[in-house]
Amino acid sequence: MRQVFLDTETTGLYHAQGHRVIEVAAVEVVNRRLTKQHFHYYLNPDREIDQGAQEVHGISLEFLQDKPRFADIAHDLIDFIADAELIMHNAPFDVGFLNMEFGLIDQKPVESIAAKITDTLKIAKEMRPGQRNSLDALCKHFGIDNSKRTLHGALLDAELLADVYMAMTRGQDSLMMELNQPQANLEARKLQQNLPLMIKRVSAEEETAHREYLAALAKSGACLWQKLEEELP
Predict the structure, then answer these.
(1) What does the pLDDT read at residue 170?
(2) Which residue, 31, 59, 230, 231, shows the most beta carbons closer than 10 Å to its own?
């Protein structure tokens, strides 16, 4: 499935209080690789920006005066995220703001546009309970360079989030591929069941390499194979 990593910046923390989106950015990932396709706009909110919010993202109302309104770019945004897995850090925040903006112009909510919504903050909390799981903290944990992130910016944050997600899920996709094989492959394996089975024991060097690989996976979060081995009698 095509994946889209999205981030927003806003005039304040609560869309229910009338705060608006002032920047939206999204980057596309296909087959776990960033493509050259991205979506990015600054937006005129037609309202003041909270001082605390401006200190976080550094975007002033003066800078936004000649920028488009959300309604001007809404259809392009819908086209970009349609039928994709939409991945965000603290997804309820971004979804709440986007749905508010879409509602103002009688458009469908995000949940009806994207094929799936994934919250990387929820994933990180499950992998690293009790630890700081901000985007900066995760970049540090996974060794991702975020030195250019002096202020929050939607496009840079979306790109960093893609890197963080790839690090968080590294190795796990291949482990789950067997569960998602097409029926044709399953039938082929059934035919092979009547053939003689050759068993070759691993060498000590191969066993050591296997353990080292599992340890590396475990650093990125829960390792499925280690969990299965622990449950074996």
Answers:
(1) 85
(2) 59
Catalytic residue chosen out of the listed positions 40, 141, 152, 210: 152
C-alpha dihedral (40, 44, 48, 53), degrees to nearest 10: 0
Q: What total of structural domains would you count in the chain?
A: 2
Cβ(135)–Cβ(7) under 8 Å?
Answer: no
Is residue 78 domain-shared with residue 123, that is, in the same domain?
A: yes
DSSP state for residue 167 in the 8-state scheme: H
Residues 33 and 116 placed together within one structural domain of the fold: yes
User: Which among 144, 180, 175, 169 is positioned nearest to 3, based on CA atoms?
Assistant: 169
Q: Which residues constitute the domain of residue 207?
A: 174-231
Judge whether 152 counts as a catalytic residue.
yes
Choosing from 169, 187, 213, the residue where a domain stops is 169
Interior/surface letters 101-135, b for 16+ CB within 10 angstroms, e for the rest: bbeeeebeebeebbeebbbbbebbeebeeeeebeb
Beta bridge partners of 9: 23
Summarised one tens digit per residue, pLDDT across range 175-230 is 333 334 445 455 545 445 555 555 667 677 777 767 766 666 666 555 565 666 66
**Contact status, residue 27 vs residue 38, Cβ threshold 8 Å:** yes
Radius of gyration of the chain (CA): 22
What's the predicted TM-score (pTM) here?
A: 0.72
Residue with tokens 């990125």: 220
